[in-house]
Amino acid sequence: MVRFDIGVYRMKKQSLKNRVMLYMWISIVPLTVLVVCGTLIMYSYYHQYDRIVSNITSANEYNLSFKEDMDEIMYQIVIGSANWTNSAEKLKGKDPYALLSAARNQFEELQQQAKDPGDRKRLNSVIKLMNTLEDRDRDITDNVQEGGHYDENITMLNMNVYTLTTLIQKQIQIYISYEASRMEVIRQNVSRQVSMTLLAVMSLLVGILGISFYISRQLTRTIIRPLQDMCHATEKFAQGDFSVRFPVMQTHNEIDTLAESFNSMVQEIAELVEDIRTEQHNQRMTELRLLQAQINPHFLYNTLDTIIWLTESGEKKEAVSMLTTLSSFFRTTLSKGRDFITVAEEEAHIRSYLEIQQFRYHDILEYDIRIPEQIQQYQICKLTLQPIVENALYHGIKNKRGGGKITVNGRIEKERLIFEVSDTGIGMTKQELVHLRGLISGEVADEEQHGFGMANVQQRIQLYFGKEYGVSVESTYLAGTVIQVVIPAILEPVS
């Protein structure tokens, strides 16, 4: 058992190529050996069978015709139908000596090829009988050439020639009979061998199937399944799961090498992606803070000028109130470094802004803020609504004779916060509206920075939330403007 475990361990240490080749040889070699052995055995039987068939065919050729032909030739010579000096012509080409010679040569060849002693003995008897027959034929032909001796020749024909041809035919038949018996034995052996071969093949196939099942399990467990698991891990990795790792089995084969390379690659890519994410986050935060820092400081300067004017005019109470409101405004603006504040804080911010502006434009400015309680605790990017309210004042209300009103509305729809800042100011012409929309989308640049505040808001919203959110504008000349802001409804603080 210990040796087997060591063998299995050593096999696991082999490369995948060597293991597959080993499994293949284990499956192929036994079957190949069996097929080769079976083929050689069957070829041997076939060779024996073919030789016997050839011997029987050769012998049967003379068994059927030799006696008849020889008897007829000799009878024609005895009765004088053939002049022996021209016997070949008179006998239609049949020569007793040529016939005997051909037959004797054939059976001598069979005797030389025969491996069985009984066959050689039987063939030797045939050859001796043919030699004796030749001598008797020669006696008759000699008597015929001398003339007379008819009765003697008839007697020799009946007693010698006919008897010898009959014996020769009988010996040939005995030889054929023995060869046929041997052929039957070979047929039985072939049948038995085929049965044994089929049994061996079936047994071997069962064994090979068992080995193949074991090999398949080994291949599945050590090669195919790890590759499938690696494919699944790769799919997870492609979907963005950088925590995926592939176990290293410590077999030191190609799978382990691939697993180690995969894990190393995933680790490096994960670290690279994290570095990129950190860099992008820092870059985005920098861009957002720069955008927020770009809010027009003219408001501060104008407000401070107004406070100075109120103080010089002796309206200290109004100056203090305006200064207090300004302080509240900048506390919201700073918001302890946070980029996101609550809707309630943003509302307080724009309310402070409008209160300050009413000190300056009390005769032309009215405002109304309608943000329901249910959305007060949702998160909003700092300085989202104030630049839009500022735009409504400076480009809407101030430019209209008699002033106007700014209204701020808020609501929630389908997990989205929607704010609308509308004014009853001068509004915009179609050309001005197209230009402003171009500024907001970034398609148009304006060196005088008209609409800069809303473009700033648009950039910050889309940097945080994506292109599906942002600012839209509708305006009618001499009627007013409506600016809509759409952001996702988020309760948790945004980092």
Which properties best describe this structure?
495 residues, alpha+beta, Heat Shock Protein 90, 2 domains, 5-stranded mixed beta sheet, two-stranded antiparallel sheet, 13 helices, disordered N terminus
Molecular structure report:
The chain is α+β, with helices and mostly antiparallel strands. It folds into 2 domains: 2-221; 294-488, Heat Shock Protein 90 (2-Layer Sandwich), CATH 3.30.565.10. The protein contains 13 helices and 7 strands. It has helices at residues 2-13, 16-78, 87-90, 96-113, 117-146, 150-238, 254-293, 298-312, 316-334, 343-361, 386-397, 430-441, 452-465, and strands at 340-342, 365-370, 379-381, 404-413, 416-423, 470-476, 480-488. The chain has a 5-stranded mixed sheet. The chain has a two-stranded antiparallel ribbon with strand order 1-3. A hairpin with a 2-residue loop joins β4 (404-413) and β5. α5 packs antiparallel against α6 (150-238). The longest helix has 89 residues, at 150-238.
Task: Summarize the model shown.
The chain is of the alpha+beta class. Helices cover about 70% and strands about 10% of the residues.
Which SSEs are present, and which pair or pack?
Elements: H1 2-13, H2 16-78, H3 87-90, H4 96-113, H5 117-146, H6 150-238, H7 254-293, H8 298-312, H9 316-334, E1 340-342, H10 343-361, E2 365-370, E3 379-381, H11 386-397, E4 404-413, E5 416-423, H12 430-441, H13 452-465, E6 470-476, E7 480-488
Parallel strand pairs: 2-4
Antiparallel strand pairs: 1-3, 4-5, 5-7, 6-7
